[in-house]
Amino acid sequence: MTESPRIRPYRREDRPALDDICVRTAHNGQDSRPHYTDPTVFPDTFAAPYVHLEPELAFVLDDGTGRAVGYIVGAADTVRFAKEFRAAWLPLVADRHPEPSGPPATPDETIARLLHHPERMIVPELAEWPAHLHIDLLPDWQGRGHGRQLMRTLLEALRDGGVPAVHLVMATANKPARGFYDRMGFTEIEVPMDDSVVCLGRTTHDLDGL
Fold this sequence. Notes:
Order of helices and strands: EHHHEEHHEHEHEE
Low-confidence stretches: none
Number of strands: 7
């Protein structure tokens, strides 16, 4: 019997679904497959390392049949995560997505460069927001309150773990996502980043409005 959709902790068998969700939402919230030769570079950079390194901070939206149709993943300490990413994750996927020898010449190489430089996540101006997160839902599951539930679940887990605040980096072009984050109580943080992205943050307390 099919159950109602629900938020639950990530399970190892969810990994293929998470990879698929990431690929289908990675291009400014849209499907990345028409734009990248090997779009698996996205989950290998922005989803899989989180469930590998910090599975306790990974939650999925289950459609009621056991299938994940959305997820949120996080890192409680970004500095520590970046170090573990290089030491324990990058060796597993580096050969699959080689680092470009010069300036990235293709969209795939642009993301591969990010994969090979996890230290990019360490930004001194973000020290007051030590955690960070990524959230994605398949299009048919957006706008129905599930993203809010996922966000609250992760924020509660971070708060209960003693983490005071969290940040995220998003593509400036992804206007619907910015509207969602605004409603979730995130505000812009001034950091020295390219104009193509914006950094947002919020505390993990005062969750009553979510």
